[in-house]
Design a protein that fits this description.
This protein is α+β, with helices and mostly antiparallel strands. Helix content is 37%, strand content 17%. The protein contains twelve helices and ten strands. Strands 3, 4, 5, 6, 7, 8, 9 and 10 form an eight-stranded antiparallel β-sheet that branches. It has a two-stranded parallel ribbon with strand order 1-2. Helix 5 (101-117) packs across helix 6. It is globular, with a radius of gyration of 18 Å.
């Protein structure tokens, strides 16, 4: 349940999200690899820009803007490991032809932020700059694999510290979640950068230790229905897992509808078509698998 003493904090969170302006140093979006490698789907990008301009998406609040982009991406095929684009050199990247759950949220948010950062003349480099800002530790890709944040919990903490987001999960009734993160080092063969440079594993283990020590809160699934009234369209929803080697197993976007808050996400489920879908209510979605333990709510903020 949501206790009365949480309500003032929730009101403060809502005020911050609505009215705060956060300055950020924006990367230049220069790719570290050939453009044909790091940016796929120029034609879809151009169509999205045309839709955004025609619909005046730029004037919408960030959450609504992000959801408009996400809606335009419905039906995009699910493709796993879309972040793994080279054996050695790390670079911000965008692939409109295939999305996984992480890149769906990133591209939707990055495109939405891009619309406010310029008044027109949008180019792929502008979107890559927004991706770099969100995806990499302190907003900078060094060209090294470890400059990318590989855990959503670090993304939420690092971006919050830089004024790019807030995390209202605790105020919504979240409880502490403690984990000993080992997923990247235990599954290193699944990641081409780690397979091709096993010397990165000790440093990755140290990163996992730091992420394990972060103060993480989640809303257990039996409390999510009560918390839905505080979730806003465009909030990023991370699904926590019962697997104790990591905190989260999936991520999507909240979309408020008449019957509650639904989950928009890129799903690998075959019965949903392995594509970007607008799914059922989040509180109902969580009961579709015993592994879906609860949620973390991440609320991005606009840039200026």
């Amino acid at each position: 349940m949501i206790h009365r003493h949480f309500l003032p904090a929730l009101l403060a969170v809502a005020t911050l999200a609505a009215g705060a302006v956060h300055a950020a140093s924006i990367p230049d979006g220069a790719p570290r690899l050939p453009m044909s490698t790091v940016f796929k789907g120029q034609e879809k990008f151009d169509r999205l820009v045309a839709m955004a301009v025609a619909g005046n998406w730029r004037d919408l609040p960030l959450g609504e803007r992000t959801a408009r982009v996400g809606t335009a991406l419905l039906g995009t095929p699910y493709v796993n490991y879309t972040l793994e684009i080279d054996d050695h050199i790390e670079s911000p990247s965008v692939n409109f032809h295939g999305l996984d759950c992480w890149t769906f949220y990133e591209i939707s948010l990055g495109f939405a932020r891009m619309l406010r950062m310029k008044e027109g003349g949008y180019q792929p480099e502008d979107l890559l700059a927004m991706i770099e800002l969100e995806r990499y530790r302190d907003g900078r890709c060094t060209g090294g694999y470890l400059s990318r944040m590989h855990f959503l919990e670090e993304v939420f903490a690092n971006n919050g510290a830089r004024g790019l987001s807030i995390n209202p999960t605790r105020q919504m009734g979240g409880v502490p979640l403690r984990r000993n993160i080992t997923e990247m080092t235990s599954a290193w063969r699944s990641y081409r950068y780690l397979r091709n440079n096993t010397g990165l594993l000790p440093a990755m283990a140290r990163i996992q230790e730091k992420v394990s020590a972060l103060p993480v809160y989640h809303i257990p699934r039996d409390r999510v229905a009560a918390a839905e009234k505080f979730i806003q369209t465009g909030d990023i929803i991370a699904i926590t897992s019962r697997d104790k080697s990591g905190y989260t197993s999936h991520v999507g976007m909240a979309v408020r509808k008449g019957d509650g808050v639904h989950l928009m996400h890129a799903t690998s489920q075959r019965d949903l078509g392995r594509k970007v879908v607008l799914d059922t209510r989040i509180s109902k979605y969580l009961y579709g698998s015993s592994d879906r333990y609860g949620i973390i709510v991440y609320r991005p903020l606009d840039l200026r």
